[in-house]
Write a structure and sequence with these properties.
Layout: H1 2-21, H2 25-39, H3 43-55, H4 59-73, H5 78-89, H6 93-99, H7 105-109, H8 117-135
Helix pairs in contact: 2-3, 2-4, 3-4, 4-5, 5-6, 6-8
Amino acid sequence: MINKIITGALLSMFFLCNAFAQLTHEQQMARDQGITLYKQSDWHDSQRLLQIAAEAGDRDAQYYLGEAIRLSKRYTTNEARKWYEKAAEQGDLYAMLRLSNKDDLCSYLGTCTEKTGKQWRKQGRLQELSATRLLN
């Protein structure tokens, strides 16, 4: 059991290091400042900074950018959905959950993308189960 916990921790650190290694110092600074502004409910000003890291492929920046856009527009726009999907494709569970929301405006307008909420919910559950098994 201890071996599984150590293995899980090492794998997590490996993936985190790889996620940060992809960004330049400037991109990391933009991401960190953008997340700080987001957490201060400054959704408009955070978007420009988050976009720098999101375009570089940072999963966290992609999720937060999707959130900042959604919150500033009051619903999930196509632009917000694009960033959620990019984060979800990299395994971001929160992005998968946001995409699986049944009450999203795109459900009512019929503008959701090809991957439905049910598919994202299923993928999120599978990811959660595999993480749980890794720790057990």
